Amino acid sequence: MSSQDIPEKNLPAARETTHGEVADEQHPFADPGLPPHEHRVQDIDEQAAKRSERSVALLFTLSMLATVAFIAAFVAIPHDKAIYVFPIGHLNALNFALGVTLGVALFAIGAGAVHWARTLMSDVEVADERHAIAADPEVRAKVHADFKQGAKESVIGRRKLIRTTMFGALSLVPLSGVVLLRDLGPLPEDKLRHTLWSKGKLLVNMNTNEPLRASDVAVGSLTFAKPEGLEEEDHAFQNEIAKAALMIVRIQPDDIKDKRELEWSHEGIVAYSKICTHVGCPISLYEQQTHHVLCPCHQSTFDLADGARVIFGPAGHALPQLRIGVNDEGYLEALGDFAEPVGPAFWERG
What we know:
Belongs to the Rieske iron-sulfur protein family. Residues 1-37 are annotated as: Disordered. Pfam families: QcrA_N, Rieske. The chain crosses the membrane at residues 56-77, 97-117. It comes from Streptomyces ziwulingensis. This protein has 350 residues and is of the alpha+beta class. The protein folds into 2 domains: 3-23 and 31-127 and 136-184, no CATH class; 191-334, Rieske [2Fe-2S] iron-sulphur domain (Rieske Iron-sulfur Protein, 3-layer Sandwich), CATH 2.102.10.10. It is 32% helix and 14% strand. It has 7 helices and 13 strands. The strands form 4 sheets. Strands 3-4-5-6-11 form a 5-stranded antiparallel beta sheet. A 4-stranded antiparallel beta sheet has the order 7-8-9-10, with no helix packed on it. A two-stranded antiparallel ribbon has the order 1-2. Helix 2 runs parallel beside helix 5. The radius of gyration is 38 Å and the shape is elongated. 25% of the residues are buried. The model is unreliable at 11-18 (pLDDT under 50).
């Protein structure tokens, strides 16, 4: 649609052309001035402006729908589902859906903003003189006035449909990132508080893979144990042994200083978590004369004759003790799980 097709009464007043300066010997590089301003169809026809407004609103609405589709795809599509996309080939359906929907959501916002700026915002050329960096009150007042003028020329106040859909699109798009936080991994729930140990579960020697009898543990010896039924071939072996690994030490009952430790032991046989409470290293060094165990990573030292309390190093708390007993066949067994989480402290400890 050209200006010749618009009724003359709808045409804006003619804008004066800024003529350039004439070059002379003193000013060989003259300011050429600005070319005559050419009005767009939307500037002279409100119906065309309305069509552009609806187009921008449609793009923003498309962005909102794409964001909703992104969230729906994340919830509904299985993470292991595959689809065939020509000519790319087989793709993970969830990744493909998330990529497409998020791409459409972002593209639609960008395209809507560009279309808005090119068709509805003012495109009048403005020349401004250079000025000093430090602004005086008059300049600041001019900046504020220019900002208000720019806001007015953006028509955001008058084009309510654009404003509403734009705010809706910009409000929904960040939800895509929030939803992705759920994909960082399974929720921990209370798994950090529990291990495979439970009442009646036998203590199995890590070296022989045989259940331990009380008679197998000599005074001054150090034995490592795991829960009955946990095998190295199991898929979750590393995760479970990292919480359930035990140190078995036999101490003369008269040498045990902590009352609860003595009650939770069997004839001086005590069972403590092997996982250091500093950063989770496996403890493996035992000094039978002092009953101290040492973490080889950062030298945290625990007194197994006094509730495995920390006597040196950066560890923050004592090693958790496992209450043990003996079954009818003479095998050592757990009488429950650890009373507190094993390993390094975490935010829900206690």
